[in-house]
Amino acid sequence: QVQLVESGGGLVQAGGSLRLSCAASGRTFSNYPMGWFRQAPGKEREFVATINWSGSSTYYADSVKGRFTISRDNAKNTVYLQMNSLKPEDTAVYYCAGSLYSSISSRISAYDYWGQGTQVTVSS
Fold first, then answer.
1. What's the angle, vertex CA 83, arms to CA 40 and CA 49, rounded to 5?
2. Burial category of 59 from C-beta neighbours within 10 Å (exposed 0-12, middle 13-18, buried 19 and up)
3. Which pLDDT tens digit goes with each residue over 50-78?
4. I need a surface site. Which of 27, 37, 77, 94 has the fewest CB within 10 A?
5. CA-to-CA distance for 104 and 119, rounded, in angstroms?
6. Average pLDDT over residues 34-41
7. Cα separation values, 20 from 1, 102, 109, Å
8. Buried b vs exposed e over 92-110: b needs ≥16 C-beta within 10 Å?
9. What average pLDDT does the chain have?
């Protein structure tokens, strides 16, 4: 059974930082893209960042570009999201996702496996 488990969420003041982790089990994602998405209350789930299998290619939503960094450790089957200069509008549940496509994508439909999410709250 494939599981993606996020951790690292919490409450932080505006301007602060958090590092999210997503550990995969049940299958290896070392050959596939991984991504982060988020969903704020009353809003649809939206793309945040994605990374290819080797980590050589990344893509970010405009809203987080320059502030967030996605990375991965294939030996640990884990993907990370370093979030700096956090803003109140970054408040959301953050989801890790694993894709079986060969290339990175910002589309929700491109991802086959999803974690349960971790809450990130940024206070002003």
1. 70
2. middle
3. 999 999 999 999 999 999 999 999 999 99
4. 27
5. 24
6. 97
7. 22, 24, 22
8. bbbbbbbbeeeebbeeeeb
9. 96
